[in-house]
Amino acid sequence: MRLNVxxxxxxxxxxxxxxxxxxxxxHEGTHVLLDLGQGAFPRIFAHVHPTDLDAVVVxxxxxxxxxxxxxxxxxxRYEFEPPRRARVIGPRDLxxxxxxxxxxxxxxxxxxxxxxxxxxxxxxGSLTLEGRLVTHTKESYAVRVAAADGPGIVYxxxxxxxxxxxxxxxxGDTLLTEVAFGPGPVPAGVLHLDGPAVGGxxxxxxxxxxxxxxxxxxxDLDATLASVRARWEGPVSFVWPGDGLDV
Length: 247
Ligand SMILES: [Zn+2]
Known about the structure:
The protein is an alpha/beta fold. It has one domain (2-239): Metallo-beta-lactamase, Chain A. It is 17% helix and 28% strand. It has five helices and 14 strands. A hairpin with a 2-residue loop joins strand 2 (22-27) and strand 3. Helix 4 packs parallel to helix 5. It is globular. The N and C termini lie close together (5 Å). Zinc ion is lined by residues 60, 62, 136, 158.
């Protein structure tokens, strides 16, 4: 299984090469895109034609995780005759949100086949997708993507309570997790993670490795890594747009 990082967030950035959350998982010709944040759409083309995506999975309805569904929709609608379509799996209100954003009823239906993510595992090509509700927005998911019997990738989406992720993590899995507030602390009432929370989760769930992402601008990266390592001894690193890893 291959993980290509198209964008690593976060919601705003001072990094010229940054893009919103978008992580492409590829296995035996199956391509699943986890989130599609701002500026990530054109980065798909370096890896796969967007019409060859088997699914786009949206973890929650914050724009930095789904806003580039708009260019994807326009591309499918206007670049082809007849228009093409994409399978999009996400929260229940995703279609209505996109329609409202564009001020057009039926906007998303014109090119996107929307499914509610939910928590029942489902097949996407050679991969299995499993969702789990986490503490963030009203309907926010973390997901696990895996080939049959192989190690998986557990992606946190955005998450305000690290232990919510633990039931998804199996031995040998790669934990791709937000660490928005770097070495911490997370301000009171804000539903995101920091390094100590991630380290504590890793010590509890023991993934094969931890990949950190979605860190806010200005956070100290070395201090963030140290804050994870203070609680967990396994491999941990940041991922950035353009990174590709075998998992
Ligand atoms: Zn969010």
